[in-house]
Amino acid sequence: MRLFVAVLPPDDVLDDLEEHVGPRREAGPEIRWTDRHQWHVTLAFLGAVPEARLDDLTEALARSAARRDPLVLQLASAGAFPNPYAARVLWAGVDEVRGDLGAVAGGIRRASTSAGATPDGTRFHPHLTLGRFHRPTEATRWIRALDAWEGPAWRVDHLVLVESHLGQGRGRRPRYEVLAELPLRS
Fold first, then answer.
1. What pLDDT, on the 0 to 100 scale, is given for residue 57?
2. Which of the residues 127, 134, 158, 165 is marked catalytic?
3. Quick one: pLDDT at residue 170?
């Protein structure tokens, strides 16, 4: 099972982002735009996890989430990985209006490791992937076009454990299935 833990923005936040990004999609054939139904903020990518570990992992993640207070987040600004001059990924940033998303992600990553599902070693950088460039691209015009946008703030009261089902064949997109909701402290 290919798993990750994420924050899913609510529909009104996604509507606002779609309204801003939508008109730009046709202007960017060099970008494979991410479908709105795939928009999320990854806290920990766990990769391949044996199904036998799922129950222990879910329990560990739930305990970690329950120790953290709800957050208030806002999508705002834009950027690119690995950098704007050789971009492979175009993203929307995540602002912490209230709470510490990095601390939540750190707890989730430690809980995953303790349950035998070690997350990838990349440094946590909160973002929502908008699209991927077909080849390394100078992306400053895209960042400028998206950077001034700010979406509505929203309250995060739970995280999700998601299974990613990889698409089959060229151009097929992965399908995401929420396996568990992980409530934050109430």
1. 97
2. 127
3. 53
Ramachandran bin of 7, using left for φ above 0, alpha for ψ from -120 to 50, beta for the remaining angles: beta
| Domain edges within the chain | 2-183
| Rounded distance between C-alpha atoms, residue 175 and residue 165, angstroms | 5
pTM of the model: 0.93
177 burial (CB, 10 Å; 0-12 / 13-18 / 19+) is exposed
Render pLDDT for 24-80 as a digit per residue (tens, 0 to 9).
888 778 899 999 999 999 999 999 999 999 999 999 999 999 999 999 999 999 999
Which of 40, 125, 134, 158 is catalytic? The answer is 40
Check whether domain 2-183 has CATH 3.40.50.300, yes or no: no
125 is catalytic: no
Active-site residue, 20 included: no
Residue 104 contacts residue 159 (beta carbons within 8 Å): yes
Spatial contact of 127 and 41, defined as CB atoms under 8 Å apart: yes
